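Entry 0007
Protein: Nucleic acid-binding domain protein
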Amino acid sequence: MCGVLKQVKQAFNQMYLNLDNPYPKQNLSTLVWNDDYPKFQERFGNLNQFVNTRVCARGLIVDYKDSLQINVKNPQFFRIMK
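Output (C-alpha cells):
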C-alpha cells in the first residue's frame, strides 16, 4: 500500500506513520513498534525527513477501531519513493 507520508507520530510503545492525512483522518497507518524502530532509523535515518514524500509499505492490512493499519517489523517492507 502506498501513499504520501503526512505524519510521524510517537505513541506509548509504537510509531505511527500516517499516510495521506495526519491523524485522525489518515487513510492508512504504518505501525512500527519501538523495539523495531532502530532498524528503520539505521536504514532510513529520521523518518520525519520524509514527510510529504510518497512511501510504500507491504504487509497485512488490518482494521483496528475503524482505522486501517499495516504492522511493519522489517524495514525491507517499507520503501521511500523518490
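Curator remark: Strands lie at 2-10, 14-19, 28-33, 54-57, 61-64, 67-71, 78-81. The chain has a mean pLDDT of 97.
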